[in-house]
Amino acid sequence: MKKIMKHGGDLLTYKDKFHGELIDYSSNINPLGTPPNLEAKIMENFSTVTSYPDIKYRELKKSVGKYLGCEISNVVVGNGAMEIIDLFNLISKRVLTLSPAFSEYSFRAKIHNKEYLELKYKEDFTIDMEELEANIRKDDLIILGNPNNPTGMRIPKDELIGIYELVKMREAYLVLDEAFFEFVPEDYDSIEIFREYGYENIGIIRAATKFFGMPGIRLGYGCVSKEMVEILDEKAVTWSVNCFADIAGRYIFDEKEYIEKSKAYIACEREFMLKQLKDIDGLYIYNTLTNYILIKLKNRDEEEVFEEFLKYGFVIRKCSSFKVLGDNHIRIAIKDRENNMKILDAFKQIKF
Amino acid sequence: MKKIMKHGGDLLTYKDKFHGELIDYSSNINPLGTPPNLEAKIMENFSTVTSYPDIKYRELKKSVGKYLGCEISNVVVGNGAMEIIDLFNLISKRVLTLSPAFSEYSFRAKIHNKEYLELKYKEDFTIDMEELEANIRKDDLIILGNPNNPTGMRIPKDELIGIYELVKMREAYLVLDEAFFEFVPEDYDSIEIFREYGYENIGIIRAATKFFGMPGIRLGYGCVSKEMVEILDEKAVTWSVNCFADIAGRYIFDEKEYIEKSKAYIACEREFMLKQLKDIDGLYIYNTLTNYILIKLKNRDEEEVFEEFLKYGFVIRKCSSFKVLGDNHIRIAIKDRENNMKILDAFKQIKF
Questions:
Q1: Which of A222, A321, B268, B274 has the least CB density, counted as fewest CB within 10 Å?
Q2: Which of B46, B52, B82 lies nearest to residue A237, judging by beta carbons?
Q3: Of A29, A58, A242, the CB nearest to B50
């Protein structure tokens, strides 16, 4: 039976299919690993495990606020970005998404028995503003990846402001999932843009997961209006952020050197990978601003190609769970040069 | 303004009221701390932080199943017991609780816009079976602490089976919050009792939080029917259990010596504390099977007494958030002998 792959990173499921250690190209994590002193910081503060985390996450919010450049009273934190995004379902009537997008957006709406509407991006993965305008209703929750997963594209600044004005006028709410924000070459910062609006009707959600290389620890955070902080804090399950995520979040944002190095490293590897991949026949390589690359298979099926990569020891991401993409797209991470060379070798061996 | 105290463990809020380190008697954590090798185990496996936790928590569930004495396919895990209990709201029509009880039960129902009905325990904190029987409806979710917080009492075995039969007949669902299970002197084990029923219409939820002394790590688990495992696993936010909770849960249950020592220690301190407290005028000391003691203030208000304990450096638990208890009850933890002696000294100084 063909299995839909809803998430990356699940190497355990495939471990018996390859003799040796599988290399994960299905989840998109900073290849430089965690900030250098993370382990030491957690060890230093290990005894916090014997107490409940601060019920209000005061120190954590202070650190996040400083990093994001917003007031502490605008900060929400969560057990991964998904917990925060999930909470918005509790205050919306209907969820509106554009496909292809992270499948959890509409799935969580379903879990909460909310109505949801999945519109489509245009063929070039830009937003059909007319269609969006025709569909936004009062109390809608519009969730947009920015940059979007799996396309790797970001909403242009003017368009984003246009969408926001529309959302506000209609009394709807816009959630930007910016989990991959730091990987994007410097451009605009949504948190700066919407500061003057007091983040009314908009939530900008980010995460330590990907850029800070720690998906295991579960730390999401975001910037919303002060009123929305109170609503979300009340709705979240108490102590949902664990003590180690709390410690990590008080420290990682000060690691300026690691942050700059990671940005530069990914920028370089992204260019390298895109250039190399574009030379391979049978593939259409989408541009990307992030640390993953969406690839269209001109002649082949995701399942076959997935199995071939497995034989070479790589787990890649099949993309049919992103719905409109059908079964002829794959997504791969951008990792360190050594592994990138290895997977490029596999790309050159496989007949597309 | 008088502030309702919804949860214990929030020392930060009171830190400016006392010169010195506050001692927490408001949350009920094993005074022996975590199992001895927890820190080493987490360090050994620190690199798991750079990957997503196993999306299916296969090893963790295996360990929990072995400890609980149930099949792996009956095991659910969560970001603390509360995440699991919260998920049941998504599949119920109405939540039914008995007061006094942990305030989150009805609060989470409210968050999910569910109807809820709060009945009362009898004056001696036993269950009014007739009233319960008169009120259970199809698709109700009945949540009972067993032992109950803050009363420290457990449902007698025969009564529990009676309640279960009733719940099943009415096509409702019973959740037993057994977060304090291990502190209770050996008696019946709900997981054994309901094995023959395949855990249909019943969920037994426990946690590493209290007994294993690690509220910071957030690890809850439980035993439910195989069908319910699938439902809850689908409804939970993906990767809600962090990698360190995952590691801890694969190791702590093998620490037999720590487990036995903790049980014996608490049993001894419980007896000591109860005996000492019963000699103090102005207090009514409820019996307890757990590691906390509910106390009725015959002549005084929780707020005044709370402030007096603060002056001695202790944060105790005010109980008015448990609703029916009014403002003349406090709850204190049972900790190590040294601290217990200290708080008993304070008890002897304060005029009740």
A1: B268
A2: B82
A3: A29
Q: Check: CATH 3.90.1150.10 for A11-34+256-349? A: yes
For residue A81, give every residue at least 6 positions away whose Cβ sits within 8 Å of its Cβ, in sequence order, or none: A177, A179, A205, A206, A207, A209, A220, A221, A222
Q: State yes or no: cis peptide before B150, omega within 30 of 0.
A: yes
Contact between B322 and B103 under an 8 Å Cβ cutoff? The reply is yes
Q: Would you state the structure tokens that stand for residue A101, as one six-digit string?
A: 């997008």
What length is written for chain B? 352
How far A158 CA lies from chain B's nearest CA (Å)?
33
Give which of B14, B37, B49, B54 to mutate to test A binding, by max A Cβ within 10 Å.
B49
**Minimum Cα–Cα distance from B54: chain A residue:** A10
Chain A residues touching B83 at Cβ < 8 A = 237, 240
Cβ-defined contact of A111 to B234 (cutoff 8 Å): yes
Nearest CA in chain A to B243: A216
**Domain coordinates of chain B in residue numbers?**
11-33+256-349, 38-254
Which two three-digit tokens encode residue A238? 């108490």
Side chain identity, residue A251: Y
Query: Which of the four CATH numbers 3.40.30.10, 3.40.630.40, 3.40.640.10, 3.30.110.170 does domain B38-254 have?
Result: 3.40.640.10
Q: Is the ipTM, as predicted for this complex, more than 0.90?
A: yes
Examine residue B147 and say whether the peptide bond preceding it is cis (omega within 30 degrees of 0). Answer: yes
pTM here is 0.95
From 3.40.50.720, 3.30.420.40, 3.90.1150.10, 3.40.50.1450, which CATH number describes the B11-33+256-349 domain?
A: 3.90.1150.10
The size of the A-B interface in CB pairs under 8 A is: 154
Interface touch B55/A215, C-beta < 8 Å: no
Contact A350, A313 (CB under 8 A): no
Give the pLDDT of chain B (352 residues) as one tens digit per residue. 467 788 888 888 898 888 889 999 999 999 999 999 999 999 999 999 999 999 999 999 999 999 999 999 999 999 999 999 999 999 999 999 999 999 999 999 999 999 999 999 999 999 999 999 999 999 999 999 999 999 999 999 999 999 999 999 999 999 999 999 999 999 999 999 999 999 999 999 999 989 999 999 999 999 999 999 999 999 999 999 999 999 999 999 999 999 999 999 999 999 999 999 999 999 999 999 999 999 999 999 999 999 999 999 999 999 999 989 999 999 999 999 999 999 999 999 999 9
Q: Hey, what amino acid is at A285? A: I
